[in-house]
Amino acid sequence: MDIKIMRCRAANMVRDMETIHAQTQIETLQTRIRHIRESRHLTLTQAAKLSKGQVSAIALGSYERGDRSVSAQKLITIANLYEVPISELFEAPRSFMPEERISIDLRKILTTSNPVAQKITEVLRNIARMRGDWNGEVISLRAQDISNFQVFTGLSTDEIKQVIADYKFPRSK
Asked: What is the pLDDT of residue 171?
């Protein structure tokens, strides 16, 4: 086969791969913009109001659907609107713990030798210190606290679920 033909085919393959990769990134961006807005329980109209006229509900919806190209300036505006780093708009969503409130039995978890539970214990101490509600027996965790375990401990969802199951304090309804 002619070397020129081989080079041309290789160049076309690289271009095709770059196009596929770029399309995946655009789709991730669209999904993330919508996911972040929805995670804050905002409608398009509410998000537009929060932007103080910097982005309209129609434009934001178009960005989320991929009906309209978004400029770098608008991406910065959207990142500022949602108070996230701009890089967060390009990252695939991570799997977090379910939205629920739980209580952890501190008496039990503070005496564990389980290394996974000990990582969570450090985060629990910081949460209690920041809240100023350390009672020494039980700590009630909000959904965001639970999600943050992954960020601050580097543990997987399954590891966190197991620790929660082992040290959960039954809540009265």
From this structure: 59
Sign of CA dihedral 34, 81, 87, 93: negative
- The dihedral through the CA atoms of 21, 27, 33, 35 has a sign that is negative
Q: CA–CA distance from 28 to each of 86, 88, 100, 136 (Å)?
A: 13, 10, 27, 43
pTM over 0.90: no
CB neighbours (10 Å) of residue 66? 15
Q: Which pLDDT score, from 0 to 100, does residue 54 have? A: 95
Q: Are residues 8 and 80 in the same domain?
A: yes
Whole-angstrom Cα distance, residue 123 to residue 106?
12
What is the Cα–Cα distance from 47 to 14, expressed in whole angstroms? 39
* Structure tokens given for 112: 């564990």
The per-residue pLDDT of the chain, averaged, comes to 79
The residue that leads in pLDDT, 38 or 19, is 38
Q: Which two tokens stand for residue 30?
A: 């669209």
Please give the structure tokens belonging to residue 10.
Answer: 């290789």
Residue 113 has pLDDT above 60, yes or no: yes
Residues 84, 12 share a domain:
yes
